[in-house]
Design brief:
Elements: H1 2-6, H2 18-26, E1 32-36, H3 40-43, H4 47-56, E2 59-64, E3 77-82, E4 95-98, E5 104-107, H5 121-130
Parallel strand pairs: 1-2, 2-3
Antiparallel strand pairs: 4-5
Length: 152
């Protein structure tokens, strides 16, 4: 179904979990990391092995609501793309958030954005992907920006 809808054959092999990804990074088998939020480098127990491997990555991309210590440990080329937090008002998109009990709720935001040109994480991801057209399947990433959830 994905192949037909998006015009490419999706990979069938199993991907890596976090531990496997970090081990592959240490072994030099990972060339890029895209991190959607979180303090990933600082959250791993074996930072003495991870930080040097992370710094050798050709590319690190962080889509984040605020700066954290992981952004100071970066690959050869690094991008930090700011995005709206769940409490900021998003005039383009409806977003959801998961609470501490695992329940998912809609979020409309309650405070103005920190800056007028900050976008949601989805919008940042789509805009970044659309610049990489030679390396990604032919997906109309612009269609995914501004997508509103239907009220139930």
């Amino acid at each position: 179904m994905l192949a037909k809808q998006f015009g490419f054959e999706p990979p069938r092999e199993k991907g890596m979990n976090t531990v496997e990804a970090f081990e592959a990074m240490i072994d030099g088998k990972v060339s890029a990391v895209i991190n959607l939020g979180g303090n990933l480098v600082r959250s791993v127990p074996d930072r003495d092995r991870i930080e040097p491997a992370w710094r050798k990555l050709p590319l690190t991309v962080n889509i984040t609501t605020k700066l954290n210590r992981s952004h100071l440990v970066h690959g050869e080329k690094s991008y930090v793309l700011p995005c709206l937090s769940r409490i900021e008002i998003d005039t383009q998109e409806a977003v959801s958030m998961e609470d501490s009990t695992g329940c998912i709720h809609g979020s409309r935001g309650v405070t103005p954005p920190a800056a007028p040109d900050i976008r949601s994480s989805r919008s940042s991801w789509c805009r970044w992907q659309s610049t990489r057209s030679a390396h990604v399947p032919p997906i109309d990433w612009d269609r995914w920006v501004g997508v509103r959830h239907r009220a139930r």
